[in-house]
Every structure is written in structure tokens, then in C-alpha cells.
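G., before I forget:
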Amino acid sequence: MVKKSNKVLNKNITKLVNKTYQYGFSTSIEKDIIEKGLNEQTVKLISQKKKEPEFLLNFRLKAYKKWKQMSEPEWAYLKFPQIDYQEIIYYSAPKSQKKLKDLNEVDPELLKTFEKLGISLNEQKRLANVAVDVVFDSVSIGTTFQEELKKSGVIFASISEAIYDYPELIEKYLGSVVPIGDNYFAALNSAVFTDGSFCYIPQNTICPLDLSTYFRINDQQSGQFERTLIVAEKNSKVNYLEGCTAPQYDTNQLHAAVVELVALENANIKYSTVQNWYSGDEFGNGGVYNFVTKRGLCAGANSNISWTQVETGSSITWKYPSCVLVGNRSQGEFYSVALTNNYQQADTGTKMTHIGKHTRSRIISKGISAGKSKNSYRGLVSIMNKALGARNYSQCDSLLIGNLSNANTFPFISVQNSTSKIEHEASTSKIGEEQIFYFLQRGICLEKAVELMISGFCREIFTELPLEFAAEADKLLTLKLEGSVG
Amino acid sequence: MNLNSPILEIQNLKVSINENEILKSLNLKVNKGEIHAIMGPNGSGKSTFSKVIAGHPAYSVLSGDILFKGSSILDLDPEDRSHLGIFLAFQYPIEIPGVSNEDFLRLAYNSKQKFYNKPEVDPIEFLSIINEKLKLVNMSPLFLSRNVNEGFSGGEKKRNEILQMILLDSEVSILDETDSGLDIDALKIISNGINNFMNENKSIILITHYQRLLDYINPTYVHVMQDGKIIKTGSAELAKELENKGYEWLTV
């Protein structure tokens, strides 16, 4: 006999889990496309289309050669069909592209898309104190707040613009943190990246605004290869926000971004991400493949780099925002919430490489797995022999929802001197039927119950997010998750 | 809803969990202003009985009915039963990490407010409401900032249950072994809380193993449950008799 009340509970859960992706639509805009497939010619063509200086063409070609000699990494706890790199379109740009001074000049179709996403630039301009560099497919369309930033000497531009306007900065720093041959996906990105953001904070400057990029994958089959470079000079400080949504498609979309951060003496970079790409349907079809290389270099003494991420989307996530702590007393932080549902798979974590003396790092990772998803934390804390007095604290908490989800922790620790101190804590908990029933008995509905428990679980991370992001993240998790309990 | 109906009426209730029949033709009538004590040996179905009334999803009702003020509640979700005024003080209150007691209590309170189309209270208003109630069970306001039941002593957990009962002002409260694991002082505090809460419009079902709770709370009826049925009903005297003779003489 079927349990009556259980059926009711399950029905509610199913309804919640099956909430469809809200941002699933695509915009029809005339596009300029390079034929799918990848060879040396494609790389040259991209560089040519973008009228790039020679050093960049060489950078790309070198990366392409490296990439050809490499093979996809297989160590991650992920399963996905073979990616055919010859079936991918590597360049697509909205056609009628010319320099726009004003948002009014932007294709109204595009503005509509932004409005649907709830990030209308007009709105952003007026309400939020945030400069937005929107990446639509592969080319930046509109950049706001340029003027205000310019006053303080901050450069915030698309990387294509920066290549013309500040070639010496790009040449100096591009690939300085993530070398072109660092890993398979980074090499691919270095060869074919089409756009992204560049930020430069001059000496003794606190960036007057939080800088923000909304990424958006629009073109079916167009791989998105973003490149972000942030350089914070001596005694400077910047907050950078990254948020993502993507339209719903059946075929998997590859995303292989590279983000490089450079913090010089006393500089402070805080990089926050809320990621909500299409994660496939409830049967695991479709969804974005996200292979990202993010790394920060604390080059100067007393510098500080902090990564905060809320990962809720993508069918595959392969992402390890890391810090290389070279400067003495520099500090790296990683705060992460990774949520997987249905058939999502996430293998994410961080690397903290301690090279300088008295370097410190802190890792707080929260994994939430629901449905039939797989959620793994993978971390490396590496203390080199010269990193005297280095400190690391790691905390990895997993929360399981339902009986079919999977949580793993793979912490690696390597210490080469005896003056360092390392702490590692881990916990696994489960939202069970009895906890839910306790809420229900007190008159609190399932949605609220899950929301309260999840935000309790993630509180330490959410407090690291900028205010407007924190509220968004809370809502996002409830929307994405709200599921498979019991 | 009939005002003359008993506040809670259980009719020929048969209930199973995982194909095991636990409650077998259970009947019980509870009127306003009554306190019913249910006693019985371990495994007789007392906890099942309490959870079924609250709508726990693990149990299947095979036949019979549960009426609240004359209307069946079998089709109602647990949260709606709660809103109607059915409260269950759990035998083992579960810990909820990451959720503060204050948030939990406020959400519970506001859920009920919302159900009755009353305005929800903000955290500051709520603080003055809850502080009054805390005094009734002798709890420090400090305990609001702790996570729900996390790291609570046995006595604190039970007091927290009574606090919630008082806060939600429930009409039918089922207290599942609220007295077990309490020292004598805690037992007095809890009994006091219950007695002050009780009035002619409410009813309470006490599930207990021991007579000692009944020294402090005077039951209108005492029932003995065995093998999923109520096999004997009597006055408070019955509890004393059970204390002396055990349960066996009833089945002989």
C-alpha cells in the first residue's frame, strides 16, 4: 500500500526539483562566425578578426601547439561523453559591431535579453553602484561607469580593448599566473579566447566601485572561452563580482575560462562568483560543461587574494580557484558553496601553494548534493620548504539530501618544513526525513524548512559575499535545490 | 466543524509501517479541557499513535479515521494539522544544525499567523513575545541564539518542546514521554509550564511510562495501551495501580 502522506511529501519535492531553468531562452541576433573546428588556421583567423598585435598571435599559436600535445585530464571524479573539439565554433560575435558610447545604441533585442535575465543595464546603471562589463557570447557589448573609474585611474575594459589600449600591461601579465601550458583547458583557452575582462588598479588606489561581469552563453555550439585578468598594484584594493546564466539547450556547451589575478605588495583582491549555468534537465541531458582555471598570485608581501564562489549550475564543473602565495605574509582564502542536483557533477576545490614566509591560507568549502548528483571537494595545500611559519586552516562540510546523492572529499596536503601548522576539519551531514518532519510539525512548510537549513549550512560563505550577491545566492540555492528531501 | 464534537476523536484506527501493523483498531475521544494519560509497555504503539496524529509520512493509515472537531484530518499535510492546533512534543527532539532557535521559533510562529491571515511579526516584536514565554519554562534568552536542539541537554530539549507548545498555543498537545530523562527539578518546571498552559479550551495527551509525572499533572483519564489498542481506561487511580502491579495483570 502506498503511504498517503508520504506521497504528498514526495509530490511537493518533485514539484520543487522540477522547477525549470528560468533563464532558458536564446536571442536571435545576426552573427559573424568562424566555421566550426580547430586548427592553426582557426587560431590565426581569430587573431586576425580581432586585429591583434603579433605578441598575442604568438601567444595563441604557442598555446595551440602545447594543447595539441596534451590530453584531457582524467583524474577528476567526473563522467561525461568525449568532447569533440572539432565540432565547436570558436568564434562568434554579434555582427553589427561598432564602438558604442551609449546603451541606447545597443541592439534592442539584446537589451531585452538582459531584461529577461533581470540585469537590465539601465537598471544596473541607476540602482547598483556597480560597473558592468557584459560579455555576450564572445564580444563585449557595453561597458558602464567607465568615466567614473577613469577618474581614479582604474582600468576596467574588455580584454580585446585592453590589448589595443594597454598592450604592455597585457604582454607583461597575460599568462603570468596561468602559463599557457598549465593544463589542457587553460592551453585551449589561451589559444582561442575571444574576450573577457581586464582590470587594473593603480598604486595606492581603492577601487571606488565593485566591478562586475555577467557572463552569458548565447550561441548554441559556440564554446565560450573567456579570459579575465586582474592586476592590483601596490596598496590597492578591488572587489570583483562574476555572475553567470545561460539559455537552455539540448547539446552540451563547453566553457573553458581562465581567470588570472595578480596582487602586488599590500594589494587586496576579492573575487566573488555566483554561477547558475544551465545544468541539464532532470534526466541529465544537456547542460554546460564548465572547465575553468582560476588562479591568483600573491606576488607582493602582505598581499591578499580571496575567492568566494557559489556554484549551482553546469552539468559538469571542474574548477579549482587557487592561490600562489609568494609574497611574505601574503594570504589566500577560498570560500565555496557547490550545489549539485539531478545528474549534476562537480569536482571543485582549491590549491593553496605556500612559497613565502608566514603565508596564511584558509579554505571553507560547503558541498550540497541532492538528487543523483556527485559532488566532490578536491584540494591541495602545499607548503614549500622556504615557507617558514606557514599556516593553513581547511574545513570541508558536505550536506547530503536524499539517499541517492554522492559527496566526496579529496584533501591533499604536502608539507616540506616543520615550522608550519595545518588544520583540516571535515563533516558530513544529511537533511533527513525526521528533521523535515520536525519543521512540518511546527507548521513550517517544506520550502522554508529546506531554505532555512541550507542557508544555515552556507552562512559562513554567504557572509563573505557582497551584500547584493548574498541575497541573490540565498534565493538561487533555494530555487535550484528545493528538492529531493526525505 | 461541529462545536459539540470532541476536539479529537480516533475511530477504529489501523496503522502500519513497513508492512507491520502497529495500531489495531484504536479508539479514543478527547474533549476540551481534558488531560488524557496514555501508559503502556514498550512497543505497544504509543509513539506511533502520536506521530500518526501529527501526520508523519512514514506511517500508513490502513483504515479508520482521525477527526479534529468533527472533521477528518487524514488528508491534511503535517503543517496544516499543526496550523489547526495539533502539537507533538517529540520524545527525541532532533538537532537542526545551522538553524538558530530564534529563527526557528519565529518562523513557526509566523507560519501560524499567516495561516490565520494575521500579520507576521518582525524579529524585534517577536523577541518580546518569546521572552515572556521563556520565563514560563525557566529558560535563559541566551538559548535563543543556539542552534535548534544542538548540544542541548536532555532537559533543555524537553523544555524547548514545551516552550514551542506554549508559543504556538496549540489546542491539542500530545506530549510523547516528555518526562523521561528529566531530573526532579526539570520535571517540576515542565509540569508547571504544562499546568499553567492548560485551560478549559485545550486538551493534552500525555504519553508516559511513569506515575511520577502524574503526581504533578492531574489526568482526567488514564488509558492503558497494549498491542496497538487501548485495553483499559480509568481515572488517575489506575496509574497508581499500574505503578504497583505493572501491566501484566491486565492481560491475564
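Residues 8-94+170-251 of chain B form a domain with the Rossmann fold fold (CATH 3.40.50.300). The first strand of chain B starts at residue 8 and ends at 17.

More on Monday.
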